[in-house]
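Our consortium's second objective concerns turning raw sequence data into structural hypotheses that experimental partners can test. To show how far this objective has progressed, the report includes one record in full. It was chosen at random from the queue rather than selected for favorable results. The single chain below, 204 residues long, was entered without modification.
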Amino acid sequence: MIATTLAAAALVAFPPREEPPVRAVIQTDLGPVTLSLDARNAPVSTCNFLRYARAGQYRDARFFRTVVAATNASPYPIDVIQAETTAGSDDPGLGPIPLERTRDTGLSHVAGTISMARNGPDTATSSFFIVTEDTPALDFGGGRSPDGQGFAAFGQVVEGLDLVRTIQRRPAVNEQLVTPVRITDIVLRSPVPDICAAIFPEAP
């Protein structure tokens, strides 16, 4: 709750400004996936992801879940792979963050989008997912979340989407990868945006 309050207060005090995209690389046992993170339009989600990466909490994490629309029984099927820390997808981690709705950010869940996993609004912590195909059901007003609030998109895969799709096609039982794909680390290739210190002043 403290992290949510601080992040929300920081957004009021420091409105969105021109922030350059942040490059980060998800290093896996199967190869790298390079991300461009949108600190201008989704600063809370981006800075949250960066603080976990800088704290080493994605070291020895894993992609553990795959959802394929063609075999998904939901009336709002999706195409994603999901990652978790060593503490699991419900890891309380550094505390929940406010939901940055796509209605407000102007982003959408097109192929290659990275987004925060969550249960209810304002509950996301460390677990994230990557979309392999355009999936508007994950946007604000889409049907995938019962509350209709959607999920917080905050960047794009710029290199390695074929690898993400390869992971999605690996054998799975009840959406759980039979052999999870290890994330050895997430490495930053750009400076941390200044706004992150305002949103999460306690971060390393």
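The partners drew two points from this record. The chain has a mean pLDDT of 92. The chain has one domain: 2-191. Both points have been shared with the crystallography group to help prioritize constructs.
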